[in-house]
Amino acid sequence: MTQAPFFSTMMHAPMTVAMIARHGMRIHSRSRVITCRPGGDEVATFAEVYQGAARLAQALGRLGVGVGDRVATLCWNHRWHLEAYLAVPSMGAVLHTLNLRLHPEQLAYVIRHAEDRVLIVDAELLSLLAPVAEALAGVEHLVVVGGDGEVPALGAATHRYEALLAGEQPVFPEVALAETWGAAMCYTTGTTGHPKGVVYSHKTIFVHTLASMARDTFGIGQDDRILLLPPMFHANAWGLPYTAWFAGADLILPGPHLKATDIRGLVERYRPTFTAMVPTLINDLLALHRESPLDLSSLRVIVSGGSAVAPALIERVRDTWGVPVLQGWGMTETSPLCALSVPPRDATPEEEIHWRSLAGRPVPGMQVRIADEADLPLPEDGRTVGQLQLRGPWVTGGYYRHEGESPLTADGWLRTGDLGTIDERGYVRIVDRLKDVIKSGGEWISSVDLEAALLRLPGVAEAAVIAVPDPRWEERPLAVVRLEDPSATPDIPAWREALRKQVASFWVPEYWAVVDDLPKTSVGKVDKKALRAMRDSGRLPIAEVRNRRDADAPARR
Amino acid sequence: MTQAPFFSTMMHAPMTVAMIARHGMRIHSRSRVITCRPGGDEVATFAEVYQGAARLAQALGRLGVGVGDRVATLCWNHRWHLEAYLAVPSMGAVLHTLNLRLHPEQLAYVIRHAEDRVLIVDAELLSLLAPVAEALAGVEHLVVVGGDGEVPALGAATHRYEALLAGEQPVFPEVALAETWGAAMCYTTGTTGHPKGVVYSHKTIFVHTLASMARDTFGIGQDDRILLLPPMFHANAWGLPYTAWFAGADLILPGPHLKATDIRGLVERYRPTFTAMVPTLINDLLALHRESPLDLSSLRVIVSGGSAVAPALIERVRDTWGVPVLQGWGMTETSPLCALSVPPRDATPEEEIHWRSLAGRPVPGMQVRIADEADLPLPEDGRTVGQLQLRGPWVTGGYYRHEGESPLTADGWLRTGDLGTIDERGYVRIVDRLKDVIKSGGEWISSVDLEAALLRLPGVAEAAVIAVPDPRWEERPLAVVRLEDPSATPDIPAWREALRKQVASFWVPEYWAVVDDLPKTSVGKVDKKALRAMRDSGRLPIAEVRNRRDADAPARR
Questions:
Q1: Which residues on A lie below 8 Å from B94 (Cβ)?
Q2: d(CA B395, CA A13)
Q3: Exposure pattern of B239-251 as b/e (b: 16+ CB <10 Å)?
Q4: CB of B149 within 8 A of CB of B172?
Q5: Is ipTM over 0.95?
């Protein structure tokens, strides 16, 4: 027989961000973008935002921005950031979202590394640029959003956003885009070495956006009102700006107002149906609710991710507000949606928390496997632990201008650096970051699982587990906890007894540190690198607590 | 600045039917495929169907089927047809679904034109092959599903489906697929000339499937149970076999049992949540309900398409069962999902029927415009009528081995042959098929709209409008109607009075024919070509009815 490919008759209509932009404007022109501002919220329709985006594209074109040029943003979540999300890729340029929580030297590095030509920056964030003025040598234009104070001289030509757009026609310039072109780029906030750049193409953003609209993923529809708390400078805020726009959902953008009390105001004013936040913020909202009741009943779901969500927290949210927590597993390298903890359809109410506390099952289009150190696939039996590896249409295959080792296996799967299991129904459980797992007496202790157990102890508000060197067992876990009531005195022996009922006895820590605050990374995760530095420099108040019976053999099961 | 494309870092993970197949098996292994059979329904899990598909792929490989080979099916909707949907594209071959309602000469034409090498056929449909035995010369293998009678000698080697698969391993052969390869093909049932072949690629099926899962399109999820009435041999049954599989929804497959009474049984046994059917069948179900109550309350929606759904029918379904009708506009050339009549989010209950009776708004990814005879875009004001033209990732750009005129405009849009309007919110209204519209006194009369008005008349069960030549007005409409009660005597003058309240007076027909039956095409639409032939050969009982006041000027408004 023929044994030769047989090609389709389908047209080559590229899948682009411009199509997303036009669809939202055309079909959902009356949907709203609400930006929280101290003087009163700014409410714009999709039609108005699209016009703003078109004017921005015209203005950038006038400044000389063309196909392939990088336009950076250093902005909070607001309407004008969204205009850049739509305008920059639609004109064939590349949107580079700068993480405003990067250390100045990292910020300087990524601006230089991406060769950003234009930088759109919030007036209140200009101060972040002063220390990196040298890195701005290649930036030709600085566009300042908001504010009316003096703009410090930073080398580049400086423009006010509103003034720059004022004379422009609200019509997008016609550009014939290829779907393989870069549309947006993000740098990972790696804990070692320089940040690494991931460049999304038009096609991968388009397909990721469609996947996020599926009923059993985020299921975003025109009736949604999305409170967008994940920063638009981090992994495209779960891709939600594009998903909301394509689906016609309202976007509620908090600007820099991200404290629990700010969120209370936004929830009361706009009754959002959907939001996403890191577990820390969920904890803050629960604390706020204890002070004065907070009504979150308008939410159909709270997506949480960034770090593992403890079952206790999922239970508390359900019991407090009746809202399900949907855990998302993803990363800058995966656009970022990879897996979601949607329970299977035959899950019983009793099993609900179990399923929701997993990293979840791959969303349609993503493939996940576990592999050993030679990258050979391991059994998916729910018990075997291996490194999680990924493949799919919106997964990166490498990093921009990166000379280090490829993140791909020889057979084309992305190594995630996460250790986990996959069960027979395809659900992923993250055991630990490869670099955070604790090796004790030849066995693994999952810092993630131990942290979840610690959070179930009475009085514990936050917990992190890192390793301490141990002459006998190689490593032992150190539990670092923050108390709900800072003035309380913890009964660690009682906690240890309680832990024994939850985890293998060799997991129960002898080393404890009670702290007032846990260091956080730029995206709100507990910063274990900082914690380890504190440990090494003696800045953690470590107590050693042993019960009589484990005097002999702490690490034996 | 650079003005050069900047490429993404994303991996090249092709989007394929094999990924859909694997995802459904892996994540939704317990979802069910139910096939209606006289002796008792056959229930299989996705895991079992996937194993069947893998065995089929192994067996076809053993018969010599390789990359690019066409494997045809001549089957009703059932488990084994679904196995072919999964197996054939996943092995790099091309699934060619034969429309069992084609005329024998068309069937012979498409088998030869596609160069089908293997033909999978239902035992009860073997009789369709006898008249086309000559066309089977290129078919090397005939695989017969079901039945146990003699198989007539048709030239090809003959196999029984079960026996062919019996010894095979339930493991898919590894094939490195490219997403641009053909995966499936369908021939349009064009009313003129030979049928024309559309070849879908892996990528277009994949993206179309994702789009069909979006909450505001079909919104298929794991909790759905889909009663699959649209034939799998026609435009991939709205793509629902793939959508259900990717989402983990149960599929209820009726086999050849498509009468209203069969559907009653399936609905009672399986309580489907989702179905799709042509308007004619909705009418049949309403008639059945009048005889003996039918409970369709398990349905969250009835998708209807194929021909325009009259507002009266949408109202009747809502009033009878409380189920919304979602009108779908699509065609073989568009995979087929193009637009859906989802009301906008701010629609009032009073407006609901208005929005649902439109062809709808383009689904995310589809672009629709109206153009004049020179293919120049026309205003989208809800009034201007033009030919509807399409662009999008799952729209065909031509036909397989077709030497006629390209269906694309010079700027790359597909001409649909439908006349319509687009309103300022992007909603499409189909005015008529270009070839069905009636030109009367220099004005257009929409056969579609006039048929909808006729269906509101008391006692009218079905209606079709075609043109009759008129010496004075060029063309006048002829109303062909079937009565609910065949023994009744219609009061046409009263109907004409009633019509005057619904449509412009020059639309009101003077020519009427009351018939016992309307001719239908292979996909259940009224066959206007056959009606015109009946008109021309004097086989329609045409009465001319004029009220006194229009004796002078029937076509003046």
A1: 6
A2: 8
A3: bbbbbbbbbbbbb
A4: no
A5: no
